[in-house]
Amino acid sequence: MKKSDFHYDLPAHLIAQHPASRRDGSRLLCLDGEDGAIRHLRFSDFPDQLIPGDCLVLNNTRVIPARLIGHRADTGTEVEILLLERRDVHHWETIVRPGRRVRPGHHIVFLPGELEADILEILPDGGRVVRFGFDLPWEALLERAGAVPLPPYIHETLEDRERYQTVYARYAGSAAAPTAGLHFTDEMLRDIRGRGIQVAELTLHVGLGTFRPVQEENLTDHVMHREYYEMSESCANLINQTRRSGGRVVAVGTTSCRVIETVADAQGMVHAGSGWTEIFIYPGYRFKGIDALLTNFHLPESTLIMLVSAFAGRDHVMTAYKEAVDQVYRFFSFGDAMFLSRRAQQSSGKGETR
After folding, report:
1. Across 51-56, average pLDDT
2. Which of 98, 116, 147 is the last residue of a domain?
3. What is the residue range of 94's domain?
């Protein structure tokens, strides 16, 4: 398949610049991956789309303030560093701006005497390996010196950092939020558990590579970015118990989906562990571990719309996206949600079908 197969026209005013006033106040488009039927709901109706015996799988990563603004010690030039991947306690792979003015040997100051860095190496993709020097706890310094690196299509200031965190965010490490989870409230999760639905948690630290555009027209030529994941024994046991009992595994977000598909065997059983995933899912992929997917609306020609198209069918997904544009849905990280399923499901019957 070609990158251009996943293009769609999106008016700029539909790109959400701020979160909904309530986390669960967004809209929800439900798409049946078997016949392409579409229903329009509110996200507050999402629990009605689940069935007792299902397992909802959440990504409990927490976004770090990964955007640092400092200056070169020799010239005073302002430098922005975006943290991508931590190699060890002091070393990170980063994106540096302006790159042409920051070379190996340059020293960058963020908090004088407290948080400073040396540029060590230029990577093949133009990124930099940076060594940070600090004495106080790293996390506390980041909270003081760093900012949340919002996606490049968001131009407004986020007043409350926590609105770019899920309510169940626990383990710091992401440069971007697993945005499908931003719609949940603690009350909704309690409601879901009370309906006889298991809730499992895994971790995938989202990198800024998720926003990098696909450059190659032929998808088989694309090199996927890698992201670190952890799946605990308890999470694997809940998912496998659901699989054995005939329930559905419902992934919240493409991040949860990628982890499950990375660790699932041919029978759909998942295995606990940790590591790096570079899985690239596009049409033709055979899903092993998930039965339904909750996600947001994704950028044209992105690896994420390709993943969603692999799950529910490219034609169904592109038709649903056109419908979402026509119905004035809000798109991308702070936008509305989409629920895709491929098995017959019980529901409240709410919403419009077309």
Report:
1. 98
2. 147
3. 67-147
